[in-house]
Every structure is written in structure tokens, then in C-alpha cells.
Specification:
By secondary structure, the chain is an all-alpha fold. The chain has a single domain, classed as Na+/H+ antiporter like fold. The protein is 78% helix and 0% strand. The chain contains 15 helices and no strands. α2 packs antiparallel against α11, α4 runs antiparallel to α12 and α5 runs parallel beside α15. It is globular and about 45 Å long. The protein starts with a helix and ends with a helix. The relative contact order is 0.20. The model has no long low-confidence stretch (mean pLDDT 85).
Length: 310
Amino acid sequence: MNGSMAGVLTGFAIIGSVIAVGYVVERLGILGPRAGFVLNRIVFFVLSPCLLFTVLAEADVTVLFSRLLVVSALAALCCFALYAIVAFGIWRRPVPEALIGTAASGWVNANNIGIPVAVYVIGDPAYVAPVIMFQLIIFTPIVLTILDLRTSGTTSLGRVLMQPIRNPIIIGSALGAIVSATGLEIPQPVLEPFELVGAAAVPVVLIAFGMSLRGQRALAPGSGRRDVLLASAIKIAIMPLIAWALGQFAFGLEGMQLFAVVVMASLPTAQNVFNYAQRYERGEIVARDTVLSTTIGSLPVLLVVAAFLS
């Protein structure tokens, strides 16, 4: 077994262990009935903004704005389009539910799984920064604004314009990207509290996800099984192929850059999608089951990618 394949297994073993802790915590009733809701809100409003600010602030600007960014963004957009055509055009799903499924089909787990995989598999966490940036600075404002407008019952130009600057995740990501792009040096005593708080985001969201699995059966009849299967197939089977084809034939990537962009595309659906679904109470089952199925299904895909491209 080569180093990359061993890294994939190591990364997934670490992640799976933390999810299992959350499941056990919920099964024993340690935190009470509202714990999952509380944990997801603290991740959304406090922990993730701090994490994303520090990750993007310390990222190399030449890696942030590169061909890897373009290929990753185009691969995600292709997957979004494939799901949206079916969900909106054929199945006529309500906008919030269809939007959650669309996000689940191409929104990769760049934070919780991408960072460990980038460390253990690629050997450089900087490769995950472009994916985090375009997902959080471009996709997140669009998705959260639409969800906010479609679930609040009110729509106005002022509300649309204000939504991005009211969202803590978008604020943290934007500030981090500005720091990286301008080369601003933040004193370590100032940065340290953000790093300390942000370090809790990954384990807490994994624990919250594990808690959500208690008493639930994935792909149960009447739970949006078709939506989950479609989003999962697009995410773990089609997205890596699109990224490979675009990277190799359209943008001339090779070696480690091609390997990195395909690895990033092979990551499972982000827990962020589940976090947003819970926040707005729409499409939660589809988000949860897609995250679970792609987390399991992405392991053999990543092993294949590591065997052929590493």
C-alpha cells in the first residue's frame, strides 16, 4: 500500500471515530434533547467563522487564485446543474429542498475531511484553501440568501443586499481572503484566539453529525430516497471524472496539481450542507443521508484516485 492510500485510510479512520463519539453521546443522552440544535448553531455562528478566517488568512494567495480554483469551481457548477435540471425541471421539488439537494451534489467537505485528507494524502493543506474559498465566498452567499428569502416569507432588495454581510460564515471567509490577498500581517496574539476557537469547529460538527444519526435509518421510504441517490451518484461518481477531464484536457494540469484537484472533487458532501439544512429546517433528511452515503462511498473512490494518480 502506497503512502497516499494509507493516508486516505488514516484520515477516514480519524473522522469516523469522532462521528462515532457523537453517536454514543446521543445514544446515552448525555447532552439532552436539544443538544444537536445548540451544537449546530454554535458551529454556524461562532466556530466555523473563526476557522475559515484563520485558514484563508494564512493561505498562499498564489494557490488561492490558480487553475486549481477554476477547475474545482467548474466541476462543482457542472454537478449543481445536473442535479438542478432533474430536481427543478423534472421532479418539481420546492425551492429550499431542491437547493439543499443541489448543494449536496457538488459541495465538497473541504473543512472536516478535506483538511485531514490534504495533510495525509496530498501532503500539503494549502491545496484545500481554493476549494474552501470559492465555496464559502461564492456559493455560500448565494445558497444562504436564497434559503433565507424562501423560508422567511419576505423579499426585498435591501434584504437581498444585506444577507451576505449579516452571515457570520461569509464574514469570516471574506475577511480571511482579504488578509491573504493584501498580505496583511496579523500579530500572533491577535490571531491566537481565532485559531483556538476555530480549532473546535471540525470536531464539534462531526460530533453533531454523529448525534443526528441516532434513531435514524438512512434511505428510508418516503425520506427523499431518489433525491439522496441522485445527489450521491453525482457527487462521488461524476464529480471526480469531471474534475479529471477538465484538469487534464482543458487546463493542462499534471502531476501533483492534477492529483490534488481530483482528490478534492472526490471528497464527500460537506457537513455544512446539513448544518444549513438544520439552520433553515428544510431538506434535513436529504442533506443528512447524502452526507452519510457519500462519506462511506468516497473512501473507495479516493483509494482508486490515489492508486492511479498519486
